[in-house]
Write a structure and sequence with these properties.
This protein is of the alpha+beta class. It contains 2 helices and 2 strands; from the N terminus they run ααββ.
Length: 72
């Protein structure tokens, strides 16, 4: 998970080092971060290949595999 407070603080420090006085460029960086950090469903760069498996615990403590529960 991204800590937003740290990100914005660090971005401010880097932007100050660049010595760029154009706030439109700064806003473009913020917009880019927001687009990819919070709209991850629309982000084509991410691959969502998580498999969720279903197991039952039997009385003897052995796991019984019941197959794939969800393929995202």
């Amino acid at each position: 998970m991204i800590n937003n407070n740290n990100f914005y603080r660090d971005l401010d420090l880097i932007f100050d080092k660049l010595n760029i006085n154009d706030l439109n460029i700064y806003q473009e960086f913020i917009d880019l971060y927001t687009k990819y950090a919070f709209n991850y469903i629309q982000n084509n760069n991410l691959r969502n290949d998580l498999l969720v498996h279903n197991f039952d615990i039997q009385n003897d403590g052995i796991l019984k595999y019941n197959g794939i529960l969800k393929d995202t």
